[in-house]
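CORE FACILITY INTAKE
Project code: CF-77B
Contact: R.S. (postdoc)
Sample description: multi-component assembly, two entities in total
Requested service: structural model of the whole complex
Turnaround: standard
Below are the sequence entries exactly as provided by the requester. Do not edit them.
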Amino acid sequence: MSVSTAAVEQEEKNIWMGGTSPMKVSYGKLMMWFFLLSDAITFSALLVAYGTIRFSNRAFEGDRDLFTFSQEYWPIPEKVYEAVPFLHGVELPLVFVGIMTFILIMSSVTMVLAVEAGQRMDKPAVIKWMLWTLLGGIAFLSCQAWEWGHFIVGTDTGSTLADGTVIYGANLSINQYGPPAFADFFFFITGFHGFHVFSGVMLNFLIFYWAVVGKLEKVGHYEMVEKVGLYWHFVDLVWVFVFTFFYLV
Amino acid sequence: MEEQTSNIQVIPPNKEKIRKLWKIAAILGLVTAIEFVIAFTVGPGAFKVSIFVGLTIVKAFYIVAEFMHLGHEEKALIWTILLPLIFVVWLIIALLAQGDSIYMSKF
């Protein structure tokens, strides 16, 4: 209360001169933010590259109901992703990927609740919410494994090439759904994201374990939950963009 | 050890804060549902793409500002994270134009 205006001004000036935390976050959280920024730029490069290649290929023009897979033009995403487990042969465009999106958003919510519990030093609640977050991550990865499997194996009818050969599914050099680059980007972008989810599940498990054995409680704070939480939300954030630019547009 | 655990003060949950988090989750779910509906009702074209991009930015805002708490951090941190993304905007403009030019020269 007794601090004069001049002293406050002096303090404002000195905020960047060392000895303080001008951004008022811990070193660990700040470094996590910088890592996520660089990771965001990596993902941007991948998605923008997808856009470049898509723009340099022919788009399908004409009646969407008459769409067939062809090497000549870029496929309509919703015609590619229309399979759902246990519903073989039923066309449900984007339903499965919608479920995956929902799972990841929910696991992001449970992560925030774990962070909130950690700030209150509520160990049982941290354990409970970390467990839900872990389950969400594992469910997402399982869905992705199924989706990749389906994409690689292909549809029942496959796709007939100009020379009459029929190809099924996709790998890095052949692709029944369209130009090979389409499958390459599918594997690289969803794969790179899936690898992030996998790393996130590993980190979440570590934090869950540390919470269970009481290590975090002993340290005196649950900031590790916040740091890994930032990473986990970022994984969700990237999926939001992948969902739009890979599946919707 | 016994003594240490008993010293820890567990603060009761902040009901209002938790309700706000669930509200944001509901918004994210709702926006995704809207995207889903638009995917099958609006015809293809620039209009549809711009709706999708707009809704994606809405979702990204809520995730970054609320879930990642960036909206409540110091201004210096907010700008440190957001400003470098200007390069991404340039990357999009440059490389999409490039893709278009490749298309023109190919077909």
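Facility notes:
- The radius of gyration of chain A is 24 Å.
- The first strand of chain A starts at residue 159 and ends at 160.
Invoice: internal transfer
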